[in-house]
Each structure stands twice: as structure tokens, then as C-alpha cells.
CRP-like cAMP-binding protein
Amino acid sequence: MFDRIIQHVQQEIALTTDEVTYFTTLLTPKKLRRREHLLRAGKPCDFIAYVSRGLLRSFTTDAAGAEHVLHLAPEDFWLDDLNSLLSRQPSEFTIEALEDSEVVLILAQHLELLYDRLPAFERFFRLLNQNSYIRTQKRLLCAKDWPAADRYQELIRQLPTIEQRVAQHQIASFLGITPESLSRLKKGLYEQQHT
């Protein structure tokens, strides 16, 4: 049941058999149906979620009701609201399954137990947060400096199957463009490749 997350963790830190056993006692598996929420805006985030199967997104909703996709999280991605988790304040965004999904949760109350008993996990989550920060920083710079076509191609490079798994309007939202702009962009790229 936890084979995938254990493999994922052991790519960064070595664990003994006893440590793996203890780690798994702190994990909570959860199945989500498509469109089911793992977290709703306004509720505090009390977990870190690892996506073992499926695809999730985090998004905000503005005053006009428009959704803005912040993250797309396929298998082997981690998703949470770190600000809410650390501050115990309500989350500003929602996490939703885009497909039937399976996640593994580490509840906030278990994190300190994990760090105390297995200090290597502090390193693991530090590396995880550093990599997440770098991805976010790169995405912000790309949004500011790169043309939409380049941002789209980078997304496809990083997540090659994303177009088969995510609605076009959500991809457009993630890229910060309108669905119509995405359609024109894709048409232009297609024409470039076939001329």
C-alpha cells in the first residue's frame, strides 16, 4: 500500500526496515473521487499530501468567481498549504482531485513525531521545500519574462501527459492566459511544426 511513497522517500534518504515500519504507522491513505476536495479554502490545512496515483490541483477563486490554478500535482508530487499548515490559519486555496486519485497524508500532529524519531525526515522535507520553492520561483520568473508559448512548452516538457489529463481551461488558468489564447497558441505551434 505504501510502496510508492517509500521508494520516493528513499531516493533522498536511507531508511532501515524498522524506520520504514515506523514511518508507515504515521501515514494515512486516502482515496479521492474526481472533483472531490482534499482541502477547501477557509479550512486549516493539517496535512502534507503525497500523490501516489491520480492528479490533483490547488487553486484560488477570486471575488468574481474565476478560478486560478496554482499547482498541478500528478504522481510523486507533494501538495499542501504550507502557510496554513505552519500558521494554523485557514487556507486560502482549495485542493481538488482532477481524476480518481490516491494520496498518502502525513498529518501535522505526526510531523513532529516523525522528526523526533527519524531526524533524516527533517532533511527530506527541507529538500522537498527547497525544490518546491525553486520551481515556484522559476514559474514566477517565467510568467513575467517568457511568452505564453514558451510557458506552455515548458509545462508540456515537465508534464508530458498533462493535456490528456487536465481540461484546457485549467491549463490556461495555470499558465495565466485565457482558454481562447491557449487555443490560438496551440494552433500556431501546430502550424509551425507542420509547415
